[in-house]
Amino acid sequence: MISQGIFNIKNDLEFKSKALEVFKFQYFNNTVYQNFCNYLKKDPSNVKTIVDIPFLPIEFFKSKTIISNEAPVQATFTSSGTTGTNTSKHHVTDLKIYEKSYTTGFHHFYNSVEGLCILALLPSYLERQGSSLIYMVEDLIAKSNHKQSGFYLDDFITLKDRLEKLDSSGVKTLLIGVSFALLDFVEQYSFNLKNTIIMETGGMKGRRKELVREELHVLLKQGFGVSTIHSEYGMTELLSQAYSKGDGLFNTPPWMQILIRDTEDPLSYQSNGKTGGLNIIDLANINSCSFIATQDLGKRFEDGSFNIIGRFDHSDVRGCNLMVM
């Protein structure tokens, strides 16, 4: 099977080899992606390196069915959206690959989830169906086997008491939350935590004034009494996540990489340290599309880490994205 070996990649050479193999598979098995590649005059005969691979604009997930096999769809994950906008739909034909991706990825960065107490403050995601983040966190909570792991919506008093008791007892705890809810929480209570990881997943749009990540982390560090704020970077259209253990600098698991495209010429790439659009290779997306051009802006660094600076305005979307219209 083409999916074999994805989660056993050990170095960059193996990644590049597998990425080209996946490209060839998706070119021949994903009609939407093949049409897009043909529009750019790209196919397996002239794609020899990963920078030759066409990256599908993420907007295609709003209007097209992006599937690379004929297996039945087991789940459809949907993005959040404002009134009147289309939402992205990621049709997943093998949930075991998604589960393997997020559990292996979490273990890669944080070791085993078992025994960790996971407290989730994700109200905006709990309020709708089809969230890939909720699917992941629910499963990680179950795998933690900790009786006090669970979700919290508006019950800040219970969350405060539980968080303080767990931390003071030396229990290794993860509080994962959407940014606006974590800010709401520390505006009501303050902490001095010693054994707890605070992880934000983004999510301010439409809820509170937008803050740059540095401002957000300063407020959260002060409120929780911690020295660093961790971050999770994922999206509906992906089956893998990148994590930051502080300062907004993200790292990817071995089967995921970031390339930075030129904002004026989407088929060209920026050198390390320069700002551009994020192109993501997620080999766990074997059954949809592993090569996605996002609307996020950021920088990639020599060691493969990256940061997020912001997002394209609609007026900034150029080049390949015109295929969407």
Secondary-structure topology with pairs:
Blueprint: H1 12-29, H2 31-39, E1 56-57, H3 60-63, E2 75-78, E3 89-92, H4 95-110, E4 117-121, H5 123-126, H6 132-144, E5 150-151, H7 156-168, E6 173-177, H8 179-188, E7 196-200, H9 213-224, E8 230-233, E9 242-244, E10 250-251, E11 256-261, E12 276-282, E13 291-300, E14 306-311
Parallel strand pairs: 1-13, 4-5, 4-6, 6-7, 7-8
Antiparallel strand pairs: 2-3, 8-9, 9-10, 11-12, 12-13, 13-14
Provide an overview of this structure:
- The protein has about 325 residues and is an alpha/beta fold.
- The protein has nine helices and 14 strands.
- The protein is globular and about 60 Å long.
- Mean pLDDT is about 90; it is low at about 315-325.
What can be said about this structure in brief?
The protein is α/β, with parallel strands linked by helices and 325 residues long. The chain is 30% helix and 20% strand.
Structure keywords:
five-stranded mixed beta sheet; 9 helices; 325 residues; seven-stranded mixed beta sheet; alpha/beta
